[in-house]
Amino acid sequence: MALTIQSAQTIFSNTQVPSPIPATIALFDQLNVDDQLAYLWYAYTEMGKTITPAAPGSARLQLAEGLLNQIKQMTREEQTKVMRDLASRADTPISRSYGFFSVNTKLAFWYELGELMKQGVIAPIPPGYQMSPGVKFVLETTQKLDPGQQITVLRNTVVDMGFDTSDLGPSSYPKASTEPAFQRTTPVISSVQIDGITEPAVLGYIEAMNADNFDAAIALFTTDGALQPPFQKPIIGREAITKYMREEAQGLNMMPQQGICEVQPDGSKQLKITGVVQTPWFGVTVGMNISWRFLINPDGKIFFVAIDMLASPQELMNLRRV
Ligand code: EQ3
């Protein structure tokens, strides 16, 4: 039987535990725009007491510099309006430009705005601001998440801001492939060992990804292969996956720990591997518990891989189907 992406998506689905991340984001989405901005400020500064993101390289900030300079020259009221427009995804020139940014440039843009807010250069949260019960509730919900889940909530809310430019065609901003790389600050993990796994495509994938060698990683996929990032639809085909990896997978450290492999009657293999991933934004200070669900075709090529955020560390051991 031919492999399909639809059926691949369901492998090991009965070992999956719903993540609290979408539920937290749904609560955030219900807040009004000012409360959303305040929530992000408090969540970010609260989190910053224990973990702080690495300052983005100047090369990456350059991509956001034009917008940041425009905003710096505005009055406080105008600056607040820009932030409200971004959070409410309004159709304005700045919201459009932001919509064209890659994920890491969006994060770098807000990182810099946050710094400028702390310095008083950009309008801060108004001094007399009273937290609404809604903001308090979403903050308390966020605090119950582990650090890896907290940074995912922040990341995903920032990514969803701005005007959705996906229907507007290619951007005039630098393409992802020409964007400067994240500098690796932690040593590259060289020899990959995963308890219970000897599958060459999987070991090769992790090794290549840990060296940002996306050409080597993509060569392990079938031409119609797919990669499904957490909470997203599958990205299909080598070209689209390579573009995605260049934009979003630079500098990641992947530390798979254990896995299981089940051979199917047609010779394909289904593997589930759990482990920890670190993002260059937070380095070794935040580990995200994740799983990879691989479907390898009978020729040993990756037909599908889904990356899922785990609900809890207990799930790292949750590999067997019941
Ligand atoms: C200024 C302030 C504070 C207040 C204002 O009111 C509003 C905002 C938005 C503010 C600023 C907020 C800021 C600066 C937030 C910054 C958040 C950051 C830097 C978050 C970074 C998160 C990174 C994450 C969660 C990365 C996760 C990566 C994963 C899970 C990678 C998985 C992958 C694997 C393992 C693969 O095998 C394939 C590729 C793939 C990427 C899917």
From TrEMBL:
Keywords noted in UniProt: Antenna complex, Chromophore, Membrane, Phycobilisome, Thylakoid
Domain OCP N-terminal residues, every copy: 18-169
Keyword Thylakoid attributed: yes
Keyword field contains Translocase: no
InterPro entries xref list: NTF2-like_dom_sf, NTF2_dom, Orange_carotenoid-bd_N, Orange_carotenoid-bd_N_sf
Xref: PROSITE patterns: OCP_N
Family statement drawn from the similarity comment of this UniProt entry: Belongs to the orange carotenoid-binding protein family.
Protein name as catalogued: Red carotenoid-binding protein
Higher taxonomy: Bacteria, Bacillati, Cyanobacteriota, Cyanophyceae, Nostocales
